[in-house]
Structures are given as structure tokens and as C-alpha cells.
Amino acid sequence: MAIDTSKTGSASIVKALQLGSGVDIKALAKGLSEAENQPRIDAITKKKSTAESSISGYGILSTAVYSIKDSFESFKNKSSLSASSVNSSSTQLQVSTTRSALATASHSLQVVTLAKPQVSFVRMDSATSAANLNSLTVAGTELLTAGDTPEKLVAAINAADLGLTASLVNRKQSGSSGLVDNWGIVLQGDTGTANAFAVTTNGSAVSPSQPAVDAQLNFNGIAVYRGSNRVDDLVDGVSIDLRNATEGASYGIRTQSDYVPLKTALKDLVAVYNEAMGVLEELGNKDSKASEFSGTLSRDKTLLNGLRSQLRGLFSASSATAKGDYSSLRDLGFSFDRDGALELNTDVLDKALADAPDAVTRMLTAGLDNQSKWAATQDRGLTLEISLQLSELLASYGLFAQRVSSAQTQVNDYKEQLLRLETRLQKSYEKYIEQFAALESFVEKSRGIGKYLEGQFKSMQNMYDD
Length: 466
Fold this sequence. Notes:
It is a single chain. By secondary structure, this protein is an alpha+beta fold. The chain is built from nine helices and 19 strands. A hairpin with a 2-residue loop joins strand 5 and strand 6.
């Protein structure tokens, strides 16, 4: 805080006229007023600086906790825990996964017969005439209207939404003079016997040129049938496309799943947690000089110790959705060394995933993806539950926000105190200036009286000497 030395009143006049004792009363007044007020100013300034530093400390600490929360959220969905793959012995048989977790298994598949659609041919007089027909019923729907051309019939069939398609073709056929036109409408449905359809014209049924056929497969030695060449319900979690397969050929299918994503996420959690604990330790260490923020929360041991205990407790908390022997992160190989650092025993983790992967995933995620925070507590996986606990700390109404608000209130209060002290300092300076100015004036008057009396004494002495 600076004193405004321009407010000196009569003291400036005294000094300008080189009157008085010659003492620098500005410097003297400034020194006395600062001696009177500066200790209090310094104490409040230090408290204000400490409160401001603590706000930064809480911000750093909340960032560290957020990193732990983010690490937990990386494996809160069941589908994020594993990576699955499926392969076939030939590129003719196309296979793909339909979900993230597959059992490791091998299967044999023989394609006895591919699924085929019904194909029927209805003859026309020509490309432009259907005069040979007096009726046409397809899949129970009468479609012929007087004067219809083949093109109109094709359009009507396709618009009727009968589960089949119609197209006008010229099949050509051999005649006495070579190939002759043979126009007609080709009707084609979907594969499988369930999609067969009836066609009647002029009171007679039209025999299909190709009947609908189901796919016949030999799966692991068992005969199975499907109405489509895309099979999604034969191997759990696998879609099989038979369209390019060869009838009579046999193929191998191999599925496998690993938990590399989960293992990576848990190892990352160890690193993130230990780094956050290092930040917490540094913020509480008032003797450290490692950074400008070292020790900024050393006065708030209650928060630091409570937070350390709460975060450590996450690894022994029990899951509400646990089944079997795995109910907490501790059961997956997490532990703390004698210095409090988090460790992960990968042998324990590997055994848990090998012996009971479903129990592990259920404990962590309730066996679900995209769980809602509004779900009942007993239905929440452990990872979601931990994430919600950490969210409470980080919320706008949470512990960190409360501490920051309290510290900011202190800063504002200290600012007001310093403003009052600044006013007091200035008034003290001005008071001393006026007092010293009056004293200087008195000194000058006393000096003038002394000189007058001295002159009178000298005059009297001279008079008697004469």
C-alpha cells in the first residue's frame, strides 16, 4: 500500500520556505504511520495470499480427482471390457461379430443346400400386350385390370407390397426359324419355403420354374435349416453370410474373446490413481518447494486426509451386482504397498478373467452397457457407483466447490480489510504531517523570539557600555 504524500498541507509550505527544524517531516510521518499500521497490513496480505493459493490448490486437486473418475468411466460398459473376433476357414464364408464378448470356441459348418427364392414365369403375348390373360392372381391378390399392358402389370405387382419383385423379360425360345420372342413377367420372392407364393392365371396355377428352398446346414454334426442365407442365430454373437459359399463344402468357424481392453484400463487406473495421490501429497506438504502450488492446502489436512481415505476405500467397496467370488476391485488383484501406492497383481486378474469372466463383468458393469445413474442402487455396477460418488465430489455443490466458495469469501473479506487499513494508513500519515507542521511552526516562532530577545540584550549591553 502506498501513502499519498501529496496531501501534506502546511508542511510543504514550511519546507519550501526553509523554515523550521530542517527535519524531513514527510519521511518521518510516513515512517511512523507505516510502523503503526504495516504489521497489520502485512498479516492480512499474507492471509489473503494464502486463501488465493488455496483456491488454486482446490482446482488442482479437483482435476486430479476428475482424472480418477475419467479412468473408471473408461470401463463402465460391458462392451468396453473385451475385444472379440471370429474367423472362418475360407473367404467364401463371410463371418462377423454381433456383440463384444464371445466365448472361445471352434465350430464346423457344412453347407448342404443354400436357401433359394421361388421364381415363377407368367407368359405375355408380347412386350406390349397381355391379351392372353383374362385374370392374374399373385399371392392371393387379383392384379389384372382390363387393358393392362405387361409394364402396367409389373408396376402393379411391385406396388402391391407382396414380398416379391416383378420384372419383364424376354426369355427367347427355339422355333422352326431360330430363336423367337417369349415375353413374360418373372416373379421372385425371398429365400426359404416360408416365402413361397401362389400364382394363378386363367383359372390355372403357374408352376414355379424354381421352388423356394430352405438352407440345409450341418452344424457340428447336427442338421439345421434356415430360410435365409444370412444366419445370425446359429453361433452366439456371430453373423454368418452363406451367399458365396459352395453347396456341399465344409467350413471351420473360430470365435475368441480377450480382455485386453479391461486389463489396459485397470493398469491405467493404477498410474492415474498414484499420480493423483502424488498431487494430493504435494499440495499438503508445506515444506516442499517442488512447485509454486506445493503446500497450498497444508492448512486443510481434514480435507486431504478424508479424501485420501475415501479414494483408497474405492478399491475395497463391494458391488451391489456381484455374483460369486468377485465383489470388489480388491478381488481383481488391487492392493496397496506399505507407502500407500496402488498396485495391481496381473496374475490374480488373469485368473479371475479366465475362471469367471461373467462374474467380473457383472461386478463391474451389472452386465450392461450405458447404465443410467437413475437406476436403483442395487442395479448399478461397481464402476458406475464409483463414478457417481466421484461426481458428487466434483459437482457445483460438492466438497471442492464448498471449499473454493469459503476461500473466496475469505479473500473478499481480506480485500475489504486491506481497503480499510489503507484508509487508516493515509489518515495516520496526514495526522502526523499536520502535527509535525504545527511543531515546526512553533519551533520557528520560538527561534524568532529568541533572536529578538538576544538583540534586546545586546542593545542594552551596548547602552551601558557606553
